[in-house]
Design goal:
Elements: H1 3-28, H2 32-57, H3 61-93
Amino acid sequence: MSALDWASAGLIAAGVAFFWAGSIGVARLPDVFARLHAVTKADNLALGLTLGGLALQAGDAGTVLRLALVWCLVLGASTVSCFLIASAARGAAQGGRDGS
């Protein structure tokens, strides 16, 4: 196994560890806001590490660009969905008022 393979395996293993930590956080944290923090921070980092490990094994620059695009799209989607969930939870906590 080459150094590149070891680096790739290390990044993927670190990504799996962060996915696992984020999943534990979602299951064990007390409220929706703490759970959202766990899932967005840990899972976005985990995906970046996993895709970084895969990018090291990619054969060409096109594949690396597609992996980077996937990560950027997931970052954007998770940001928007986290905001919408947090807004709905805040509105529910305030008795249906939107805070304006």
